[in-house]
């Protein structure tokens, strides 16, 4: 080995060092890639894993007797994989699906448009047509083999057993962007309860989504399940709901109310359970399903009769004379009157130039017959004496405030808290309201009409029915509610706790007496039956048009099973519609059916039509 | 018979078994990676199915088997035939390379594959060992000196450039670039260090200048890249002045070799060279952008993507991004054999050939990948050690050729997968799928082992 080579041999260390340096740099690089951040891991997961949602079955809904009202029904979407869809006979396809070729071409360009369909890949299934009916589906399935690339995907939509209770049951529809923003449970295309129970019990009904992790290759094709489904999560089905509704009672109510505007609400007094909630006009919930929902919904919301309005909780009406019961209770409790107190009434209440008219009856009357005959004069005097009572109250304002507190304790003036969306609070005026309206110069006389359920006072039919339930219970109520039981769940304590009014029980007995009198010898005589003791109170609410016909009552007097409010817009006297309809409803519920004579009467009323030609609201 | 068995014994004793062990371990690791890269979801996972014929994993097993046989055969030949037939083999491969484009059919734009029956061979893979042999033969000839002999340097360069040109003509630029690595061998054999230094300086200017070319500092005339390159040039010039123009350095050089001239003339000459270097540096930098404009579009893109100039996940950068995702998702221990998702689901392109290291990274994690790199480092250091113990220049030169080629493949292939250098399509030795490259590397390595095994013969 010569000297020169010895000198050059030192260069082996330069080369060895270079090799070591490079390998060290690469190992450091590996370390930063693999050990310092999860970013690549997450990007790898989003590359390879497709999380497919598994939709839970939505909870079923039954009535109080276990009759199935709402259930799930399979619907069929048609999906297409563009890559595989070649040489399909378009004409044949369109014919089999009942669409025209223009629609087909438009849909195909929509699918391929990345702006409208951001997740588009020609290797994966794209929605072509949604919610085919069973019939359309079976027709198409026979020919499916002729259309490569087209597949059928099962989905579930709601179906309704009965054409009744549309407003209670509500419906479901695709979520809108704000739903997605508010609750990250939802993804575009999911269904959400839009109205009724479907909306207010959405969280219970929807269940919990499951997911399966699929492996997706670079072309978007599914290659299998990740680790054979070890990390998949099974969906948890939604909870079944049992409604407090008696569907037979609901059915009768809707039948009686057809061709009329208004509402019937019945409550089981001891539990606050709503037995029926009729609003008229109504619609068949079965039409709000599937592809036609949007159009149907549009038609209904354009209807001047407002069939989408649930009048039972959204309609605010003057309660008329049914309100007198609440006045009697207030006056008794405040010591303004005793059951023996009698007020004169000569075809009405006369005070100075003011007259509130009344029909002919004996005078003066004590409380019980005053309720029985629905004497206006009695309650006007009562209110006037209360508001002018300076021993109890320093001012009219203070009297008014006391009065208002009684009303609120009976569930008026505020939302009751029913478990349905859209409830209105009605109107109970207070002192400030009148101070403002009359610039401070007002008296009991000015507002005298509130004592007979007119003037500024408005209630929803639900609040009127709840008044009946409160009297039936002699002084308390449970917030009315429509869901009786949640599968494996508890009702909100709101729907199990008693709410007491400010009036003691003994005064309620007096009012019951009066209401029984009304049925036996007063305004509600047509509600009389020998089978049980009925308590009732009519109302004839004045408004700009023809009077509204109102009835509020309960039966039997002891251990009441049902409290009811009937409100027929422009139905005239309370006795015209309110009393007979209320009586039929109570009979149906207490006896489980109508007697033949009642059935005949029901048929008669069902066919009665009220003309609303100039109806504008 | 007695001499035969004696000869056999001495060969067996002298074979460098450590290198063979590293070779076999790398082959085994490589095959497992091929399994990971080729495995399809739902296929059986047992070893028999993986090894069955007709699948790529099965085929690779055939290549591995034949390579082992080939290695054994080489070890049993007489080592003198390599010396004797070096030029003949070189000439034969050159002719083969020359005719390849005419015989080849186009595979993804490459004209480097010859079809023989149902097999395809890539002659370029075999030209590596033939060129190494020719260089070893030439540089071990009597009285050969690289230092100071421009004739010898030029001849060596011609031996290297001939196969390069022919391979470029087959549109296999990556494979052609491999021959540049032989400059490392030339350096060991006496090529002045400044040649390597100039090369490295030029590459640095190019990379730094282009990387920051589009970040303006003073209008359009002076970019951040220009500033950085200027600083680099100043640093290099300062370092050169310090190393070569100190009075002590000049006096030392004169005392080593009186014939180079007087103190003044040496100093003047050195200043002139450094000035030339500075001017050359500026010219290289100024021509860099112009040069890039004249590159083919895909080459330009590759350089730009590498330098981070383009954020283009579906274009050229896609390969690199997917490779990084696959490796990065491996974590410390990896996802396990056959459990990689990115490679299975074909997110990584060329995953069983050029991007095979992704599978290692994803399935074996940081630990596995680091072990593979360390195994390669072990092999490289062992090659230097073995090359240095050769009694004759022939073995040493050949050994450094083997070292240079393996180092280049490792640096370029792994560097590209890790996103550190441009995408240049060359295989990772013993890992990438394919018979030609595996046979080529086996020939290259085992000829060296055979030469090494005979190192003591002449002394006896």
Whole-number total of structural domains of chain A: 3
Quaternary structure state of the chains depicted: heterodimer
Structural class of chain A: alpha+beta
Gyration radius of chain B, in Å:
24 Å
Global structural class of chain B = mainly alpha
Number of strands of chain B: 4
The amount of helix of chain A comes to 25-40%
The CATH architecture of the largest domain in chain A can be named as 3-Layer(aba) Sandwich
Straight-line N-to-C gap of chain A: 116 Å
Question: Which two chains form the greatest contact, residue counts included?
Answer: A-B, 39 and 50 residues
CATH homologous superfamily designation of the largest domain in chain A: DD-peptidase/beta-lactamase superfamily
Largest sheet of chain B: 2 strands, antiparallel
Low-confidence stretches of chain B: none
Structure explained in plain terms:
The complex is a heterodimer of chains A (617) and B (460). With 617 residues, chain A is an alpha+beta fold. In chain A, the strands form seven sheets. In chain A, strands 2, 3, 4, 5, 10 and 18 form a six-stranded mixed beta sheet that branches. A five-stranded antiparallel beta sheet of chain A has the order 12-11-22-21-20, with helices on both faces. Chain A contains 22 helices and 22 strands. Chain A folds into three domains: 51-67 and 161-243, Penicillin-binding protein 2a (Domain 2); 74-156, Penicillin-binding protein 2a (Domain 2) (Alpha-Beta Complex); 247-285 and 310-607, DD-peptidase/beta-lactamase superfamily (Beta-lactamase), CATH 3.40.710. The mean pLDDT of chain A is 89. Chain A is 36% helix and 19% strand. Chain A is elongated. Chain B folds into two domains: 2-213 and 309-453, no CATH class; 214-308, no CATH class. In chain B, α4 (56-76) runs parallel beside α20, α7 (123-139) runs parallel beside α20 (435-453) and α12 (224-244) packs antiparallel against α14. The chains are: A alpha+beta (617), B mainly alpha (460). Chain A binds chain B through residues 4, 8-9, 11-12, 14-16, 18-20, 22-23, 25-27, 29-31, 33-35, 37, 39-41, 43-45, 47-49, 215-219, 223-224, and chain B through 40-42, 145, 147, 184, 187-190, 322, 324-332, 341-342, 344-347, 361-362, 365-366, 369-370, 373-374, 376-377, 380-381, 384, 387-388, 400, 403, 407, 410-411, 414-415, 418, 420.
